[in-house]
Design goal:
three-stranded antiparallel sheet; about 110 residues; 2 domains; alpha+beta
């Protein structure tokens, strides 16, 4: 999940941004990769509270990883995992489907020269 604002925020220069977005489009063609964009005209969403990763290991163990400017943290508490799972569902509900997300990334890439 990527917030549309990230696609439009200049880091480096226009050619760097265009290259990054073109690479992102390439990555969407890889197996098991899905990139979806949350439109900037949507409401506040729980993803704005900070990044997280949910993972399920081969043995069925579920973990979460939270990251901030000071450190990362691994969580294994079931209630924390459930809470983050609900947040994930909320975030995906705000995101564009896969193909419109890719189209938006391509459109924004063209604006960076």
């Amino acid at each position: 999940m990527i917030d549309e604002v990230v696609l439009r925020r200049l880091l480096g220069d226009g050619s760097v941004m265009r290259g990054q977005l073109e690479h992102l489009v390439t990555v969407t063609e890889w197996p098991y990769v899905q990139v979806r964009v949350i439109p900037s005209d949507g409401p506040w969403h729980t993803g704005l509270a900070g990044p997280f990763v949910l993972a399920r290991l081969d043995d069925g163990t579920e973990l979460a990883y939270l990251d901030n400017q000071l450190r990362g943290q691994i969580l294994n508490d079931r209630s924390d995992i459930a809470s983050l799972g609900a947040r994930w569902e909320s975030i995906t509900g705000e995101a564009l489907p896969r193909r419109p997300s890719i189209d938006l990334i391509k459109e924004v890439a063209k604006t960076w020269t």
